Each structure stands twice: as C-alpha cells, then as structure tokens.
Task: structure prediction
Amino acid sequence: MRGLRQRIDERLKQLGTNRSRVARRLGLSSQRFGQYVNEDHEPDLELTVKIAAALEVTVGQLLGAEPMPPPPGHDDPRAAWLEDLATTVRHLSDDEVRMLVTGLKAALQSRTGLQR
Result:
C-alpha cells in the first residue's frame, strides 16, 4: 500500500476536509485512522472500502492501481447541476426515477439521434 498516505492527504485537500472529520465519519478515532494513513497498520477489506467511499474514490484509486479522480467540480462545469439533480432524485420513488431516466433518454435520442 505504498503511497497511501500521499493519496489520502491529496484527496482530503481536494475535498476540503481533514483526517479527523473522515475518521469520525468512519467511526474511528483520529489516532487509529492516522495509523492506517501512515501505514503503521493495514486496514481490512471492509474498512478499505469504507475509506474509499468516504474519500469519494474507488478502492483501486485509493490503493494506487488507478489514477485518482480530479477534484470534485473541476472536471465538469455542470457538476453543480448534477449535484442538484442527485439531491432531487434522492427524494423520488424508484418509479419516479425510472420515469425520469426514460424521459431523459428519449429526449436525448430524439435530439441527437443517438441510441443509448
């Protein structure tokens, strides 16, 4: 897990958070989380998945097998709209989400002639 510390610290900076906040979200003490970040201890698979989720990356990205994603909101100028949509969709039923997605796909197909 070489380089884990650098990847975590870089991602914390991108997300505008710190180790203590992430540790709390994971239900760990700052000291225990620091032991994982500093590679004094290796987290088990379940905790590795939770750390990756808290940092909004894949396990592959966390472990260095894949490149880290760009900072949130910097890769697509429509990121704020997508966040608003995600917030709205959380309040919809499964049927409403299905109808929304179907409608969006139909609109895109008729506009661009693309099959998605």
Observations:
- The helical segments are 4-15, 19-26, 30-37, 45-54, 59-63, 79-89, 94-112.
